[in-house]
Amino acid sequence: MIESIFFDLDGTIVNSEQGVTRSVVYALEKFGIEETDREKLLKFLGPPLSYSFMTFYGFDRDSAERAVAYYRERYVPIGIHENEVYEGIPELLRTLKESGRRVFVATSKPEHFAKTILSELGLDKYFDGIYGSTLDETRNTKDLVLEYAIKEAGITDKSRAVMVGDRYHDVEGAKKNGLECIGVLFGFGDREELLGAGAIDVAETAYELEKILLK
């Protein structure tokens, strides 16, 4: 039986597309880059920001760090509030807690931001711990966040714990920490991406996810 569940945040609990992509557009404009391709902007949902600016736009590390600072100029006062909870997620979290499962968040988003978002949405009460990256990006990849989360949560039997996420980063981060991962298809990844990365199962809805986690 699964006893402990680590949830990704963006694309798994909340749809954060508007807040993230609009803040990315704001940052890119500071460099004279006008981006209107939604698919390119969606690539920023999941990986660390500095990695995304370097990988998708060829920024060097210094420029990427400045881009992250510009991103936060918009994200902190505005973008952090532009989230929608996915259908069925509050009910799922309530059911998991009532069943006695321990429920956590493990996100590449800065921990302070994750706590602010979940508190604002009234979902923080369902979690036994909310773990994220550091603002200085010393802990910013999913594997490092999960390593930290597992330690803080006191998980000793990893065979009874699982990661839930929507992108291959979640699957790979889980594998590096000895956890299996269940993918969700209502976020920003797809079945091919998740199963290709090694997810043990995928769920199209929160209801399907509940059945997988409680079986």
List the helices and strands and how they pair.
Elements: E1 4-7, E2 14-15, H1 17-29, H2 38-42, H3 49-57, H4 61-75, E3 84-85, H5 89-98, E4 102-110, H6 111-120, E5 129-133, H7 142-153, E6 161-165, H8 168-176, E7 180-184, H9 191-197, E8 201-203, H10 206-214
**Major sheet, described briefly?**
6 strands, parallel
* Strand line-up across the major sheet: 5-4-1-6-7-8
The SS-based structural class is alpha/beta
Count of alpha/pi helices: 10
Helix content: 40-55%
CATH class of the largest domain: Alpha Beta
* General shape: globular
CATH topology of the largest domain: Rossmann fold
The CATH H-level homologous superfamily of the largest domain? HAD superfamily/HAD-like
Provide an overview of this structure.
There is one protein chain. It is globular and about 50 Å long. The model has no long low-confidence stretch (mean pLDDT 96). It has ten helices and eight strands. It folds into two domains: 144 residues, HAD superfamily/HAD-like (Rossmann fold), CATH 3.40.50.1000; 65 residues, Putative phosphatase, domain 2 (DNA polymerase, domain 1, Orthogonal Bundle), CATH 1.10.150.240. The strands form two sheets. A six-stranded parallel β-sheet has the order 5-4-1-6-7-8, sandwiched between helices. Strands 2-3 form a two-stranded antiparallel sheet. With 215 residues, it is α/β, with parallel strands linked by helices. Helix 1 packs across helix 4.
